[in-house]
Amino acid sequence: MILRTAVGLVYAFILLPMVIVVLAAFSAGNYFTFPPQGFSLKWFANFFQRREFMRALWLSTELAAWTALVSTVIGTAAALPLVRGRFRGRDLLNAFVTSPLLLPQILTGVALLQLYTLLKMQASYAALLIGHIVVTTPYVIRTVSATLTHFDMALEEAGQSLGASPLRAFFEITLGVIKPGVVAGAIFAFAISFDNFTLSLFLTSSKLTPLPIELFAYLKYSFDPTAAAVSAFAIGVALVLVLGIARFMGLEEFTGF
Amino acid sequence: MSRRARLLLLGPYVALLAVFFVVPLLLMFAISVSRQSYGQMEWTFTLTHYIHFFTDAYYLGVLADTLWLGAITTAVSLLLGYPLAYHLALTRSRFKPLLIVFILSPLLVGIVIRCYGWMILLADRGLINESLVRRGWLAKPLPLMYNKFGVTIALVHVFLPFMVLSLTGVLKRIEPQLIEASQTLGASPRRAFFEVTLPLSLPGVLAGSLLVFSLTISSFVVPILVGGFKVHVLPMVVYEQVLSVFDWPFGAANAFVLLVISVALIGVYIKVTERALRGIV
Questions:
Q1: I want to staple B253 with a disulfide (CB 3.0 to 4.6 A). Which of A55, A194, B32, B152 is the partner?
Q2: What angle, rounded to 10 degrees, do the helices at A175-195 and A125-148 form?
Q3: Domain residue spans in chain B?
Q4: pLDDT (tens digit, 9 = 90+) per residue, A244-254?
């Protein structure tokens, strides 16, 4: 009983700030009170009418889509030999390809900014995209590896003994079986890129601002619920993406529970 | 799988990592031991910036505050995360997927948004203070934000999921028969928990703590937004040196101090998780 109450309180703590942001986004007042002062969509209207937010939203979506596409292709490719290959140094290589996950992103960000500046490619679209691909690909490798370890190699061999080329056997058999991991990885890469703040902060300029950076800049000067509307929108996107992962891979498999 | 196929499959990402991850970090080290005059780099080998960092009381204070904040955040996360992980590992509730969504939700909602939520709650004219003052329970607002208290709350919120994920993984692998056996032998549920479950979950406790600690000491969004630049931590100094002061060598040296601490913690973390998995599975 005590355990359940404690658990309930911790869940409330986890959800509280997000619930507050969503409530503030729909309330009519200039600052948030409880109970909310009436219902209003004016903050959303303001969000969708402000050009800087719309430009940022479009940039984030496009960036996340490219990031997800590239990291899914190279991540899935890398996962194959890492799970199936039998070669010296495989464990070391495994640790190496997932290292961007473990290193604090502020360090990756500072280091990349310095490299880009010396190469005179700072604050370019390509620079931002490469940075995002570096940090999202390890997630794809992890989810694909998780499904790949359950995969029975005999299936692919059967395909090949029935006359399929290795490439055809891969595309028609293996890819079909590991699809959940690939799709979940792609969705997760999209989500990580769409919400990325730390790395982007070092790689953007006033002309190239993804949504989290725009929101951060807005919050430094104003406190009105337009920021809440932007946030509520992003929370909605995150929710849709989680449901997508749940649908394709199952959350218990995804988190390893 | 042939050598050529391996090379072809692994090549793209490994090459990308080499050029855009390893090279930048090496470059950062090179910059940290170089000099900068009038915005121009002079490639030298000097430890001046490291000596500056470790002899200046301000920076040593920042380092101490950073580690202290990391320790507090880790302890509170463990205290809140353990019951949650314990419940999640044992529950057969059909709402379990929903509970996992709740735990994962902070991970997928951007860090700026989560900080903003806490700002609405904790500000001087925020939800908590405003409600208490309006009801006459408080004469003036409590200082909940722009200090270590608010920063700690927000940091715990941001990194709690990592603690819960680490703990649940280990707790789930404990054989229920072990606990049943101890109870059959006469142990109370309480004793069974403290003498069987808790010791067996220690690898998860250690892994989760290392992870949360290393994430906390490198976080700077929370100190900036919820701390309002009033709580000084090492990553914030790095950010200011690189993006505002433009003192690259000193910024890089600060970053490298942070990197050494993080890598050391991550090294221990990898050792612990390897041993934890081998020991229980």
A1: B32
A2: 140
A3: 61-280
A4: 887 777 766 66
pLDDT at residue B22 tops 90? yes
pLDDT at B281: 29
CA B40 to chain centre: 35
* A92 vs A88: CA distance, rounded Å: 9
Q: Which positions 179-198 of B are in contact with A (Cβ < 8 Å)?
A: none
Assign domain B61-280 to a CATH class.
mainly alpha
Structure tokens that stand for A162 in this block? 């029935």
Of the two residues B110 and B63, the one the predictor is more confident about is B63
Instruction: Give dist(CA B266, CA B55) in Å, integer.
Output: 27
**Segment B54-77 mean pLDDT:** 94
Question: pLDDT (tens digit, 9 = 90+) per residue, B34-50?
Answer: 888 877 788 888 888 99
Which residues, given as ranges, of chain A have pLDDT below 50?
A: none
| B102, B117, B130 ranked by CB distance to A20: nearest | B117
Do residue A246 and residue B101 have CB atoms under 8 angstroms apart?
yes
CATH superfamily of A47-255: MetI-like (1.10.3720.10)
* Cross-chain residue pair A255–B266, CB shorter than 8 Å: no
Inspect the interface and report whether the beta carbons of B248 and A13 lie closer than 8 Å. Answer: no
Q: Please name the residue of chain B whose CA is at the shortest distance from the CA of residue A254.
A: B100
Alpha helices in B18-55 (DSSP H): 23-32, 48-55
Minimum-distance CB partner of A111 among B25, B96, B110 = B25
Residues 6+ positions from A157 with CB-CB distance below 8 Å: none
Q: Does B225 touch chain A (CB under 8 A)?
A: yes
- Using CB atoms, which residue from B87, B113, B242 is nearest to A7? B87
Which residue has tokens 């070391």? A92
The nearest alpha carbon in chain B to A25 belongs to: B117
Q: Can you give the residue ranges of every domain in chain A?
A: 1-40, 47-255
